[in-house]
Each structure stands twice: as structure tokens, then as C-alpha cells.
Design brief:
Chain A: This is Glutamyl-tRNA(Gln) amidotransferase subunit B, chloroplastic/mitochondrial. The complex is a heterodimer of chains A (533) and B (546). Chain A has 533 residues and is α+β, with helices and mostly antiparallel strands. Chain A has 20 helices and 14 strands. Chain A has a nine-stranded mixed beta sheet. In chain A, strands 5-4-13 form a three-stranded antiparallel beta sheet, with no helix packed on it. A two-stranded antiparallel sheet of chain A has the order 3-14. In chain A, a hairpin with a 4-residue loop joins strand 11 and strand 12. In chain A, helix 1 packs antiparallel against helix 8, helix 7 runs antiparallel to helix 8 and helix 14 packs antiparallel against helix 15. An eleven-stranded mixed beta sheet of chain B has the order 1-3-2-4-6-5-10-11-9-7-8, with helices on both faces. Chain B is built from 17 helices and eleven strands. Chain B is of the alpha/beta class. In chain B, strand 10 and strand 11 form a beta hairpin. Chain B starts with 34 loop residues before the first helix and ends with a helix. Chain B is 36% helix and 12% strand. Classes of the chains: A alpha+beta (533), B alpha/beta (546).
């Protein structure tokens, strides 16, 4: 029975349809880029159920049932995130750490756990943990210690991990998130239970959220905000593909009104924000169905794996009671005592964080759509800030960056740091258009040249003689020339085919090499065309 | 209280021995070390020991003896005594070569380090580059570490020659060296007796002059108790004074590398060489390292009451009924000796003293259960053939570890398990805090504390092997000091009956953290003024006679 229903879910358009769309727009969604696709997806999401193909009657019925079922339950989502710190060396020895190096090439007696070798804490790890703890509005433990977590595993040379057990370095913080406009927007604050230094060797921070999230989208946005944060702080590259940012999601549902939490299921192997979103939505539906069928005893405490191919979660391992890790204080590493001055100096050196940036951009009069786009990537935000600092108009700068520049980066697969354009020149370009030195069209051409080859706006204008022609007599001459060279079209125009105005305007623009001021051109052209009627 | 202790009055004349040569320039003992003993019947006494290291330095620099000659003397004695003693698991093949290179340097008038030509024995749980380091365990048979322990590196840099790796109880877990996976070491004072443990090999080797000094490790008394049993000087430094890098961990919060010498001076010189912060050990202290030997004075220069005003506390709980009468009387003799030296003695009680033993065995076992997890057969050491991962772990460990180690791993695993943690590990940590506090108070009222180093002298091989609790009980005098992290010096203070020439009894002096200097100074004066004792075991006296 359960398995039958299960199959129903898998093929159900309610789940299938939006998720495929979401997947296609993977990067689009959580980087909050503007996109027609996303909006479609969003609209469909909001107007559940979406269009249904095939035999609409029965499917629609089922969809409604499922929708109704889901509404009877409240979902509780908590996330454990592991952030790999971008320290130059490993956490407890001076071996370099780089993703992708050959196995067992960067090793020493310490990380091999040879007899007699001792771990020594990399101070950068503490600094990064304090940074992230402060950025997450946590309370720092001024005295924190390390503990051993013990189990046997071939990749665990010492037979234990050096971790933090009962005294994490930071506790009780929160993370502010702005949901994408496409999904109705909204501001959320999710609790952060703890930040601790987790696992030896490769320096890893663990961030445990409160069970504050209710939807896959909220969870994905929480993770995306964490990524933004670690990148803003420079403590990690936050790359999910490399596993530098890993999220394990705990999902449980309970009937609305019930206080007791349902059995939680842990989902692993979530390699993108969209897979977080989709995996959670799948898991909610799976659990809701089991509940509605009175088979909630089938929901067991287990770890499930998200399978990207089949778009579903499958059992990875069931918990057989609680593993006893026999934690005890790590005797090889002394207690870490944070001095107030140290914490203060880190606090004062924190950069403007994503949430602060978004609020500032909002105050500058930008729309939430723009705010989310610009603040999403620290490098884009810095580029934008620098452009503004050079006197550029806020809205125009945002438009250029989000429009042509973003499109160019996307096509060329470049980041904003890779393109040759500097914020100073973008500001100059905007100013040149505003002052009518060049036309918007020319501006665009110059922009692409600047992005590809670099240089200065003024240099290109001079070099290519691109200054806009604003002298009416000069434009008049060009208009006269075009009219005299195209007597046939002129006759047709005067015969009533007035849409030929565009043809003439184009010809004049061509002669002027695009430099003619479009307003002036059209004004003079119209005067001439209609003059001898 | 102490005034009721009866002791025979002693003459102050012994502060002024007839031999008035300055010990710094007295080179005779180096080559004719056992001469005094050889001339006399085995039960007789010998004069206080002199610093072998200073003698060696003097004779090398004055070119009276070469490093090669010195090394040959020690090696031949080693060869002679080793079949009976079995103090070494491995003897280096490079000793003469290294000695030769020191001779070459001296010939070329190049500088040589202060330990040049000094033969050092190294306990086999301390890593040595290109030499086996087994910790006395089958699990590490033939294992050769790719690095030197910091302490070894430091003595090598000062010119010392590592003569070999000394026997021990497997991973330091034991008090008699009988728990070695490879051999049982004998006590040079009576080869039917144990040398103590776990650093029994290091103690026996120095006692039998198979090497000049040696390194040991002390987790619960593993330097001090064998020093007492073998009649040599043993020093357990303050926790953190010496880097643990390269010491195969038994119980990390208690382990320290310690020193053995045939005199207090040598022990102090060795300590100076190995002390100090090491960036490879986060628990090593940045505390300043003074020259521990600068306060040493020749016996002839001492005033009549050289320790006047020194407040010495005798730990009451260490002279209870469980202590052998021979040990007790030797300690009481030491008490009166200290009084004659000018010390003010008083009795001091450490109420938590008896709790130290169970607390120690819980904490040490707990930590060891974790520290020994790395011996899983995956990366180094002996690997069992197995088809499956858990079998590989299980078989490698079942075949690699001896019974004592297995027992402690089991005890420790139990003590850390969910549901038992609070009753065992946590409670033991609370006891540890109490012990630290009581030592602090006692050391506030006294400059040093004294006690026997062990409740008995060396016992017979096999006597306690099958009675682990009796064996553990023998550690009562020493474990508290490890729990408190304090420094302690053990030095011979007398003999008790047994063996051919009596059995040595060691006096333990406990000082405040990082004040090894005070212990060495007091110990040196005590040693140099001690008469009616014997410092050389009969074994080497007889060997040389033959």
C-alpha cells in the first residue's frame, strides 16, 4: 500500500513539475538572478496546483488530496552545516590543505597520527570561528575546549576526532534571510544553536541551526545566506561542489497543533541549494503521505541520501540506538581562552555583512529584487559599492551591473573580478551618458569593449571619435543627405507610408556612425519629412 | 610528632669528606667507576656519586680520554651485563661511529656540545629516528619512526650518543617491566628481582652503568619507582616542562618524559638539555628554563647547615602501615639527615592522598583507551590478515596488545561510556582537582614534601605479576604527583635488606610546579652529604672483578 502511494508521489505532477523547473534554474534561484524562468516557476509554485497534462480529472483530484494532506502537517527543519575553512594549513599541523591534491601527498607525522605525534591548534581556525560566531550574532564562549570523539574508521588515523562537545565556541545566535521576491519575498530570522570547531585535520566549523525552518525554500535560503556570510567574511570559499559547504538537513513533520516533534529524518548528499529545496519538499510529501495513511511508524530515525538522478531520498543507514562516542576533554590541546581585546579587534574588523548590506541598499532606494541580486555576491557588491563611491547614480549603476554586465559574465562564464571593467570606468561611463557626451547605444558598445579589453571611457571615446553629435546643423546636413539619396522612399513616406521614418532615422544614424543624438535626429528628421507636404 | 622519631645522632664531620678534590676536576670515576666497590666487600658502602657528564666533558676536552674509548668502556660493560639484565630492546650499531666523529671534531679543535660523548639510553616508547621504537609492544614490532622525539633531538644536538632503546612495560603500563612484550629486565642489585617500571630498562641501564644517563617516561611513577628500585636518581619534571612530542602517549594529561642519572648532578644536566617549550607540543610550557645545575656546590664548600630554614613536610599518609619497615626506617633516616642539614621538618597530611590511586587508574586508563585507538593495524605496525574491516581492527589489536594493555583499554572504555562517565571519569577528575588543591596548600606551608618513592624495595620477578591490584597498590606514593602535575625527584637514601648487598630505597622529594631547581639543589646536597649508603650495584662490581 505504502509503496504504491509512494510511486504515486514520484510521478505526481505537483511535485514533479515545479521541481524540474527549479532544477533547470538551479543557480538562478538562490543567487536570485532575474529570470523569466524563475518567475514562471514562482508563479506556478504559488498557484498550486500547476497545469496538469494527461488525464486531468484523476490527477487533479489526487493533487488536491496531497495538497490537503500537506496542509494538515507542520514541517520542522533544522540544518547542520559544515564549513571547511580556507586556512592555508590543516587545523592541527602545518601541512598545506588544498582541495584536489593527490591523496596522501600533504601529510606529516601529526596528521598521520603516528605514535608520539601531537596536534597543535592552528590559531587561524580560532580566528575564523570567532569571526563567524560574531557574524551569526552568537554569544562566544571565552573559555572553550576540545573533546575527543571516538570511533574506528580507516580515514581516521588516531581513532578519534578532535571536536567540540559540550562547550562550543559560540552559541545562541541567529541568521537573517530575505526570501526571493519571486517567492513572495519576506524577511526571516533563523536561530543558530551553536558554532563549534568540528573534526581534525581539515579545519571544519559546524553551524547548527534551531529547528526554525518550515519549507524547503526557507532551508535553501538559510544555506545560501550562510554561504554569502562565509564568503563575505573570507573564512571559506563556501563551494558546495567541492564540499567546502555541506548541509545535513533534519526534517520531521507533525500534525498541526501537536506539540511533540515527529520522528526526524536526516538527509545527506545535498550538493546545491536547489537540491536542499527539492529534497526537503520530497521528504515532506513522503512523510505526510505515510502519516495520512496511518503508517507514521514507517517514519524512522535514519539517514537518507538525496539521489539527484531519481530526485528522491533513499535510506542510507538506520540509527541503531545512539552511538557512544565516549567524548572526553582532549588532553593534548589546552583550553582556548579568548581575551576580550582579541574578540573586540575581530568584531571591529568584520566587514559589512550581507544583511547589513541589504538593509543599506534598501535605504538607497533599490528594489528588493535589485538588493538581493547585488548583495548576493560579495564581489558584485563590492563592485557596486565602488561604482557608487565614484559618484555613479545608484539606480543606473545597479541597472548596468544587473543587465549588460551580468549577461556578459554569464555568457563568457566570468566573475566580476575577471572582467577588465573597473568600477571607476563604469561610473565614468554612466556620467558620460548622463552628460550626453555619448549616447546610450555608444555607451553599451564602450561597455563591452571595457569589459573585454579594459581601457578608459575617455580613451575609447577619443580613440574612436565617439563623442555624440549634438550640433543641429551637422545633423541637418546628414538628414538632407539621406533624404536626397533616397527619393523613392521619401515619396512613399509623403504618400502616407509614415512608418518609413524609422528607415530614415536608421540611415542617418548609420552615417553618423551612431553618434547622432537620437532626440535631435528625430526632431530634425520629422521637420524635414513633413516640411514640404 | 616527628620529634618522636628516634634516630642516632650523626657527626657533622661527614659534610667534610676526606677527599677534598673538586668534583668538577675529578675524572677518575669515568674509567674506574666501580673501583671503590670492587675493593670492598659487596655489602659495604660507597662514597656519594659524582657527575659523570662533567667528568666526561673534562676528560674529553683535556684529551685524557677519547669519546671512542669512553664508548668502548660502556659498550663492553653493556655486553657483559646485558645477558643477565636485558635492559635494552635495541642497541645502536652507530655508537662507535658517532663517538669517532666527536673525536674528530675535538681533534680539529671544533666545538662539541656539552653532552658530547655522553651515552644516553632512551626508553623505547620515545621515538628515535632510524631506530626501532616499539613501546614494548608487539603491535609496533619493527616500527621505525620517521622522526626523533623533541627530547631526543635536543640531547643529540648537544652531542649525546643514543646507545639504544630500553625495555619497558608495554606502552608504559606496568610497574615492574614484566609487561614488556619482548623480555623481562632484571634489577642490577639482585637479578632475581624486578627493576621496577615502567621505565625499568632505563633505570637498570644507568644503575649498571650501561649508559651514562637515560630518558624515561613517568605517567604514574614510571621514572621514580624504578629509580628507587635500582638505586639511581630519577626525576619527574613538572607537567609541560619537557615536550611530549615523540613520546608515545599513554595518558596524555599525566605523561612526562623524565631523566635518570647516577647522580643528582647528571640528572639535572640532562633535564636542562631537554626542557623548554616546543611548538610541536601545545601542552609544553613557555616557562623560563633556568640552569638547573648552577646552584650545585661541591660538598667541601657546604656550610654546616646548608639547608637551614628549608621547610620540609613529611607526608603522613605515605608512612602508614602499608609501607615496608625497611623502607620506613630508611626514610626516617633521611628525615634525620635532612634535619642535620638544617631543614625544619614537620608532618603534613594530604587527606585526599588515598583517593589518588583509584582516580589515577580511571583517568590513565580512560585516556589510554583513546590514545591506543590509533594502533589499528591500518597504517603501521603489525597488521592481521582479515577479509573485512572490523576483523582487521579486531585481530590486529587482539594479536598486537598484551593482557595488561587490553585490561586498561577495557577499563578506560568502560569509564568513558555513556552512563558511566559521571561515576568514573568525571568523579576522578573531581578527585584530581582536590589533590591539586591539597598539594598547593601543603606546598604553601612547606618548601618541599617528602615521602618514600615506593612502599617497598624491589620485589621478586613474578611475585606480583598475577596480582594486578597489588601491583597497582605499589604506585600509591607516586600517582598523586602526576595528578597534581608537580615535579619530583627520587634519589637513593639508604638500603634495606635483600639481595647480595641490600636493596636501595629511594626518597621522593616533591616541589612546587616548575621548581625543579630547588629539588635538584636540595637533592644534590642530600646526596653529597649522605654517608653509609651504597650507590653501585653488586652486579657490575663482581663483573669487573672477574
Amino acid at each position: 500500500m505504502a509503496s504504491m502511494l509512494f510511486r504515486t508521489i514520484q510521478t505526481h505532477p505537483f511535485l514533479l513539475y515545479p521541481t524540474t523547473l527549479l532544477r533547470r534554474n538551479n543557480a538562478v534561484l538562490y543567487c536570485t538572478l532575474k529570470s523569466a524562468h524563475t518567475q514562471t516557476a514562482a508563479q506556478e509554485e504559488q498557484q498550486k496546483p500547476p497545469q496538469i497534462k494527461g488525464s486531468p480529472q484523476t490527477r487533479q483530484a489526487k493533487t488536491k488530496t496531497l495538497d490537503k494532506i500537506s496542509k494538515d502537517y507542520e514541517t520542522i527543519i533544522g540544518i547542520e552545516t559544515h564549513v571547511q575553512l580556507s586556512t592555508l594549513t590543516k587545523a592541527f599541523c602545518s601541512c598545506p590543505y588544498n582541495y584536489g591534491t593527490q591523496p596522501n601527498t600533504s601529510i606529516c607525522p601529526i596528521c598521520m597520527g603516528l605514535p608520539g605525534a601531537l596536534p597543535v591548534l592552528n590559531s587561524k581556525v580560532i580566528e575564523f570561528a570567532v569571526k563567524l560566531g560574531l557574524a551569526l550574532n552568537c554569544k562566544l564562549s571565552l573559555n572553550s575546549k576540545f573533546d575527543r570523539k571516538q570511533y574506528f574508521y580507516p580515514d581516521l588515523p588516531k581513532g578519534y576526532q578532535i571536536s567540540q562537545f559540550d562547550i562550543p565556541i559560540a552559541t545562541g545566535g541567529y541568521l537573517d534571510v530575505d526570501l526571493p521576491v519571486e517567492f513572495g519575498g519576506g524577511h526571516r530570522r533563523f536561530g543558530v544553536t551553536r558554532v563549534d570547531l568540528n573534526r581534525a585535520g581539515v579545519p571544519l566549523l559546524e553551524i547548527v541551526s534551531e529547528p526554525d525552518m518550515r519549507t524547503g525554500l526557507e532551508a535553501a535560503e538559510y544555506a545560501a545566506e550562510l554561504q554569502r556570510l562565509v564568503r563575505y567574511l573570507g573564512v571559506s570559499n563556501g563551494n558546495m561542489q567541492e564540499g567546502s559547504l555541506r548541509c545535513d538537513v533534519n526534517v520531521s513533520i507533525r500534525p498541526v497543533g501537536q506539540l511533540k516533534f515527529g520522528t526526524k529524518v536526516e538527509i545527506k548528499n545535498l550538493n546545491s541549494f536547489s537540491s536542499i529545496n527539492r529534497a526537503i519538499d520530497f521528504e515532506i510529501a513522503r512523510q505526510a503521505l505515510l502519516h495520512s495513511q496511518g503508517e507514521d511508524d514507517q517514519i524512522v530515525q535514519e539517514t537518507r541520501l538525496w539521489e539527484e538522478g531519481s530526485q528522491k531520498t533513499v535510506t542510507m543507514r538506520k540509527k541503531e540506538g545512539l552511538a557512544d562516542y565516549r567524548y572526553f576533554p582532549e588532553p593534548d590541546i589546552p583550553e582556548v581562552i579568548l581575551m576580550k581585546e582579541y574578540v573586540d579587534s575581530i568584531q571591529s574588523s568584520l566587514p559589512e555583512l550581507p544583511e547589513m548590506k541589504r538593509r543599506r541598499y534598501e535605504k538607497m532606494g533599490l528594489s528588493m529584487q535589485d538588493v538581493l541580486f547585488l548583495a548576493n555576491d560579495i564581489n558584485v557588491a563590492q563592485f557596486f559599492d565602488a561604482t557608487i563611491a565614484n559618484g555613479a547614480d545608484v539606480k543606473l549603476a545597479a541597472n548596468w551591473i544587473m543587465g549588460d554586465i551580468a549577461a556578459y559574465m554569464k555568457n563568457e562564464k566570468l566573475t566580476i573580478n575577471d572582467i577588465e571593467l573597473t568600477p571607476e570606468e563604469l561610473a565614468e561611463l554612466i556620467a558620460s551618458i548622463k552628460s550626453a557626451t555619448i549616447s546610450g547605444k555608444i555607451g553599451k558598445e564602450i561597455l563591452f569593449e571595457l569589459m573585454a579589453k579594459g581601457g578608459t571611457v575617455n580613451g575609447i571615446i577619443k580613440e574612436k571619435n565617439l563623442v555624440q553629435i549634438v550640433d543641429p546643423s551637422e545633423i541637418e546636413k546628414m538628414v538632407d543627405k539621406v533624404l536626397s539619396e533616397n527619393p523613392k522612399q521619401l515619396e512613399q513616406y509623403r504618400g502616407g507610408k509614415t512608418k518609413l521614418q524609422g528607415f530614415f532615422a536608421g540611415q542617418v544614424m548609420k552615417i553618423s556612425k551612431g553618434k547622432a543624438n537620437p532626440g535631435l535626429l528625430n526632431k530634425i528628421l520629422l521637420e524635414k519629412l513633413n516640411a514640404k507636404c | 610528632m616527628l620529634s618522636t622519631l628516634h634516630h642516632p645522632p650523626r657527626s657533622l664531620s661527614r659534610f667534610f669528606p676526606s677527599n677534598t678534590k673538586s668534583r668538577h676536576f675529578h675524572i677518575k670515576p669515568v674509567l674506574s667507576l666501580s673501583q671503590p666497590a670492587a675493593d670492598q666487600p659487596p655489602s659495604s658502602t660507597s662514597p656519594p656519586p659524582e657527575s659523570q657528564i662533567l667528568s666526561i666533558r673534562h676528560s674529553l676536552l683535556s684529551r685524557e680520554v677519547t669519546a671512542t674509548q669512553l664508548a668502548e668502556t660502556y659498550l663492553s660493560r653493556l655486553k657483559l651485563t646485558e645477558p643477565q639484565l636485558k635492559s635494552f630492546i635495541h642497541v645502536s650499531n652507530n655508537v662507535l661511529k658517532e663517538a669517532q666523529s666527536i673525536d674528530d671534531k675535538i681533534k680539529r679543535n671544533e666545538n662539541v656540545g656539552p653532552l658530547a660523548g655522553v651515552l644516553v639510553g632512551v626508553k623505547d616508547n620515545i621515538c628515535t629516528l632510524d631506530m626501532p621504537s616499539t613501546a614494548g609492544s608487539k603491535v609496533l614490532e619493527k616500527y621505525r619512526p620517521p622522526f626523533d622525539a623533541t627530547a631526543v633531538k635536543r640531547v643529540k644536538e648537544l652531542g649525546a650518543i643514543v646507545v639504544g632503546k630500553t625495555n619497558l612495560d608495554e606502552f608504559g603500563m606496568g610497574s615492574s617491566t614484566e609487561a614488556s612484550a619482548f623480555q623481562v629486565t632484571a634489577n642490577p642489585w639482585d637479578i632475581s628481582r624486578v627493576p621496577g617500571g615502567s621505565s625499568g630498562g632505563s633505570a637498570a641501564a644507568v644503575s649498571a652503568r650501561q649508559c651514562v644517563v637515560s630518558l624515561g617516561s613517568d605517567t604514574g611513577g614510571s621514572v621514580r619507582q624504578p629509580a628507587s628500585f635500582c638505586g639511581v636518581v630519577g626525576l619527574k619534571p613538572t607537567y609541560g616542562r619537557v615536550s611530549r612530542y615523540g613520546l608515545m602517549a599513554y595518558a596524555s594529561s599525566l605523561d612526562v618524559i623524565g631523566c635518570f642519572g647516577s647522580s643528582v648532578a647528571d640528572t639535572g644536566i640532562l633535564l636542562s638539555a631537554i626542557s623548554g617549550h616546543d611548538r610541536l607540543d601545545a601542552t609544553s610550557s613557555k616557562h623560563e628554563v633556568p640552569d638547573f645545575t648552577s646552584q650545585f656546590m661541591s660538598a667541601v664548600l657546604l656550610e654546616s647547615k646548608p639547608l637551614k630554614g628549608l621547610r620540609v613536610g613529611v607526608i603522613r599518609e605515605t608512612l602508614d602501615d602499608g609501607v615496608d619497615s625497611g623502607v620506613k626506617s630508611a626514610i626516617l633516616g633521611a628525615v634525620s639527615h635532612l634535619e642535620e642539614l638544617g631543614c625544619t621538618l614537620s608532618e603534613v597530611s594530604l587527606p585526599s592522598f588515598s583517593l589518588g590511586l583509584p582516580a589515577y587508574y580511571i583517568l590513565a586508563s580512560s585516556e589510554s583507551s583513546s590514545n591506543l585507538s590509533r594502533y589499528d593495524g591500518v597504517r603501521y605496525g603489525n597488521q592481521a590478515a582479515a577479509d573485512e574491516l572490523n576483523a582487521l581492527y579486531g585481530d590486529s589489536r587482539a594479536k598486537g596488545f598484551g593482557p595488561e594493555v587490553k585490561m586498561r583499554i577495557l577499563m578506560g572504555t568502560y569509564g568513558l561510556s555513556a552512563g558511566y562517565y559521571d561515576a568514573y571519569y568525571k568523579r576522578a577528575q573531581q578527585v584530581r582537582t582536590l589533590i591539586k588543591k591539597s598539594f598547593k596548600t601543603a606546598l604553601h606551608e612547606n618548601d618541599i614534601l617528602i615521602s618514600p618513592a615506593a612502599p617497598s624495595a624491589a620485589y621478586k620477578i613474578g611475585e606480583k605479576k598475577n596480582d594486578p591490584l597489588a601491583m597497582y597498590a605499589g604506585d600509591i606514593m607516586t600517582v598523586n604527583v602526576n595528578l597534581a602535575g608537580l615535579p619530583a625527584l627520587v634519589l637513593p637514601c639508604g638500603l634495606t635488606e635483600g639481595g647480595l648487598a641490600g636493596l636501595p630505597v629511594g626518597l621522593q622529594m616533591i616541589g612546587p610546579a616548575f621548581d625543579e631547581g630547588k629539588l635538584l639543589k636540595v637533592g644534590h646536597i642530600f646526596e653529597q652529604t649522605l654517608q653509609g649508603c651504597r650507590f653501585i650495584p653488586p652486579l657490575i662490581a663482581e663483573d669487573i672483578k672477574e
